Amino acid sequence: MASAVALPVRGLRLVARAPILANPLNVAAIALIATFALCAAFAPLIAPYDPLAQELGSRLRPPSPEHWLGTDSLGRDIASRILYGARISLIIGVVVVASAGVFGTIVGLVAGYAGGLVDEALMRLTEVFLAFPALILAMAIAGALGPSLTNAIIAIAAVTWAVYARLTRGQILSLRRREFVEAARAMGASSVRILWRHLLPNVLAPLMIQASFDLGSAIIAAAGLSFIGFGAQPPTPEWGVMISEGRNYISTQPWLSLFPGLAILLAVGSFNLLGDGLRDAFDPRLSRTD
Amino acid sequence: MRFLGFLTRRIVGIAAVMVGVSIITFAISHVIPADPVAAALGDHATDQQIAAFRAEYHLDRPLPEQYLTYVVGLAHGDLGRSIRTRRPVADDLFDSFPATIELSLAALIVAILVGIPAGVWSAISRGRLPDHLVRLGSLIGGSIPVFWLGLIVIGLFYYQLGWFPGGARIDNFVAPPPSRTGLFVVDSLLAGDLVALRSSLLHLVLPALTLGYFSTAVIARMTRSSMLEVLGQDYMRTARAKGLQERFVILRHGLRNALIPTVTIIGLTFGSLLSGAVLTETIFSWPGLGRYATAAAVALDFPAVLGVTLLAAIVYPLANLVVDVAYFWLDPRTQRG
After folding, report:
1. Which of A14, A158, B124, B243 registers the highest number of CB atoms within 10 A of its CB?
2. Inter-residue contact B290 to B17 (CB < 8 Å)
3. pLDDT one-digit tens code per residue, B182-224
4. Please, where are the H alpha helices in A76-199?
């Protein structure tokens, strides 16, 4: 009986106790993410200029003490636009992962726990979404709904949730016949309570790893959609829009596209690094080889 | 017999997924706030023109009927007529798909030729500088936006150094080779046209490197990881104890076994290359499926969007099927299981 009580919270404890900070790379990743988050939160205080303010007399200036990362074709300060862009990119990542993660996890929980026809139907639906070429589906959705940042977020979330559904369902299948679930059921716990209280905490670790990678993927996907005109629209200081605006100046004023791209690389790289670190911390077998 | 059963099950599964894909894409492209009629005919179209357009694309019928008409056409190889190009979608896809295949295959070849040796090198130098470099390179490869990498590569190798062309499949002044496969490099070889071969190979370098970087990173990581697992196995110790040369032990005993999971990843990577190709083709003015898809989505050309999505959606499960079939023959355990 002791194990029946202890096991359900094992997942949460695993998450809390995983030696995440023991790896210096994880610390570096968390520090970078925290820096991005701070830039995003305090962009109005840190940014030296208004990201939308045009100063046509200072068009296409190279990096200098006045404009750390130079100015764009309308004389807007690139550093300020990147700082505000961090806001947009982080929001995209969080909203996509939160919505796709919650929806996919619920689908996976229901499919894995219910089994039978429900499982079969939900998993076939999941397979369909996994088979879609993500960017092409996102383009179709964003094209149909009209190009905007919100529609890009909807499109990316629509192609992301299926991974969570499959991941959760796989975990639930291996857990639902375990003793602590049987014990909870024998004690009269409802299905919802079993799912919420006993099964969900045990699938949190792999979901968190996936979420870390997806935060980066969502930022890249949104920037890609904006780059080809299906996401955020000018003059929004979004990193993909900025790269697109600098496209015609790549031979003469490369900093227009260079710095927003580096910002994406750093942000996505730190989420991927954290994802690697979480995976190693939660699965010691992998950390031996990685 | 067992193989036939396995193959039938998989093909039925793929067919079921394709039905799902077609329904969802059809729903997205037909239950939309945007108006494809306005997009195609503009704001000044007459009522007669609008009515004729709606009749031509069956937009005046109920949605289930539209879908059934589409599926019946599909069964006859008819993907409908593109609103933008006014040509049959199947013809458009037939023209643009080879360019994407050529680009994706070139990217995959780059990824395999660089990724596997890099992964092995990283594993055998674990914890030392080469290992750190490969891991850093893999991290960057997995985090870099492909469209940005393409721009930087064009800026450096085309504008600054002038080493490679920055777009298109072949020089304007070179006649494309007679089309047999649609792949310019292969067609140039078949025609013995060395000028076209040189030009098409040079045009392929930058887009293939750009598109292939992500897959290179994935393959290098997987090879490193599985190589490290293999290096610790007893049979590796035995091979060394027999006095075999280290290079022989690593290549013959280590890499052969480490490659099994890598082959799976290579199959999966091919599907993801198609998504990357959309953006790479946009940057490099590569006249493939990706550019066609982008133009179709902008113009709300739903028959074309449907066609591209169906074609792209079948590539991923087919690539998986090829990997699974290869496994079935290569690994006797799957035949028993």
Report:
1. A158
2. no
3. 999 999 999 999 999 999 999 999 999 999 999 999 999 999 9
4. 78-114, 116-131, 134-145, 149-175, 179-186, 191-193
Which CA distances in Å does A225 have to A96, A260, B75, B283? Answer: 14, 15, 33, 13
- Min Cα distance A4 → chain B (Å) is 34
Selected residue of A122, A128, A256, A268 to mutate for chain B interface (largest B Cβ count, 10 A):
A128
- What ipTM was assigned to the predicted interfaces of this complex? 0.89
Residues B36-73: tens digit of each pLDDT: 777 777 777 888 888 888 888 778 888 888 888 888 88
CB pairs under 8 A between A and B: 149
Q: Is A25 exposed, middle or buried (0-12, 13-18, 19+ CB in 10 A)?
A: middle
- The tokens describing B333, both together, are 């355990």
Residues from chain B contacting residue A142 (CB–CB below 8 Å): 297
Please state, in angstroms and as integers, the Cα–Cα distance from residue A112 to each residue in A107, A159, B290, following that order: 8, 20, 36
**Nearest residue on chain B to A125, judged by CA atoms?**
B20
Measured between CA atoms, the residue of chain B closest to residue A122 is B20
Alpha carbon distance, N-terminus to C-terminus of chain B: 14
CA distances B69 to A144, B26, B66, Å, are: 21, 12, 5
- Alpha-carbon distance A139 to A229, whole Å? 10
Q: What is the pLDDT along chain B (337 residues), one digit of tens a residue?
A: 677 887 888 888 888 888 888 888 888 777 666 677 777 777 778 888 888 888 887 788 888 888 888 888 888 888 888 989 999 999 999 999 999 999 999 999 999 999 999 999 999 999 999 999 999 999 999 999 999 999 999 999 999 999 999 989 999 999 999 999 999 999 999 999 999 999 999 999 999 999 999 999 999 999 999 889 888 888 888 888 888 888 888 887 888 888 877 877 887 787 778 778 889 999 999 999 999 998 998 888 888 988 988 888 888 778 778 877 777 666 656 555 4
Q: How far is the CA of A76 from the CAs of A48, A79, A203, A249, B285, in angstroms?
A: 11, 9, 46, 15, 29
User: Which residues of chain B from 31 to 50 reach within 8 Å of chain A, CB to CB?
Assistant: 32-34
What per-residue confidence (pLDDT) applies to A78? 97
> A71 by DSSP, 3-state: which?
strand
What is the pTM assigned to this prediction? 0.89
Dist CA A194 CA A83 (whole Å): 44
Phi and psi for B83 in degrees, rounded to 5? -70, -35
- Phi/psi at A74 (nearest 5 deg)? -110, 10
